Amino acid sequence: MGPAVVHRSLVPDPQQMRLRTRVNGEVRQDASTASMVFTVAQLISVLSAGMTIEPGDLLATGTPEGVGMGRTPPLWLKPGDVVEAEIDGIGTLRNRIVAPRL
Fold first, then answer.
1. Does a structural domain hold residue 8?
2. Does residue 20 fall inside a structural domain?
3. Each residue's pLDDT tens digit in the chain (102 positions)?
4. In this structure, is residue 102 part of a structural domain?
5. CB-based burial label for 59 (10 Å; 0-12, 13-18, 19+)
6. Which among 33, 37, 40, 4 is positioned nearest to 19, based on CA atoms?
7. Looking at residue 1, what is its pLDDT?
8. Exposure winner among 26, 32, 40, 42, fewest CB in 10 A?
9. Of the candidates 6, 22, 28, the residue with the CA atom closest to the CA atom of residue 84
10. Side-chain-side CA neighbours of residue 19 (13 Å)
11. CATH code assigned at 74
């Protein structure tokens, strides 16, 4: 999660947020939450019907199209790659891929 977890008061409309993912500077995903299959409100409604959602709980909603395994040929991350996930109004999370420790 990141680059920051923000209070809902800082997100005027969760269905109007642009998301971008870059790998080594190349855009791999560029979408808006407006194209989500289910809105944030619908997800909260369905989840809260079966469980109690507490303050501070985080809901993961999935990812836009453009993931590596869905490409032809597939594009897999490798050590040294830099992945940036950006959400307008929140910021950019930057991670470098490292090799597993053996």
1. no
2. yes
3. 777 888 888 888 999 999 999 999 999 999 999 999 999 999 999 999 999 999 888 888 888 888 888 888 989 999 999 999 999 889 999 999 999 998
4. no
5. exposed
6. 33
7. 77
8. 26
9. 22
10. 21
11. 3.90.850.10
Alpha carbons 20 and 91: distance in angstroms, whole number: 11
Give me the chain's average pLDDT, please.
91
User: Is 59 part of a structural domain of the chain?
Assistant: yes
Task: Please state, in angstroms and rounded to a whole number, the distance separating the CA atoms of residues 57 and 19.
Answer: 21
Which tokens go with 67? 């993931």
Contact 90, 19 (CB under 8 A): no
Distance of CA 13 to CAs 32, 64, 65, 95, Å?
Answer: 12, 18, 21, 27
Backbone angles phi, psi at 66, to 5 degrees: 120, 5
What 3-state class would DSSP assign to 16? Answer: coil
Total structural domains in the chain? 1
Residue with tokens 């032809």: 72
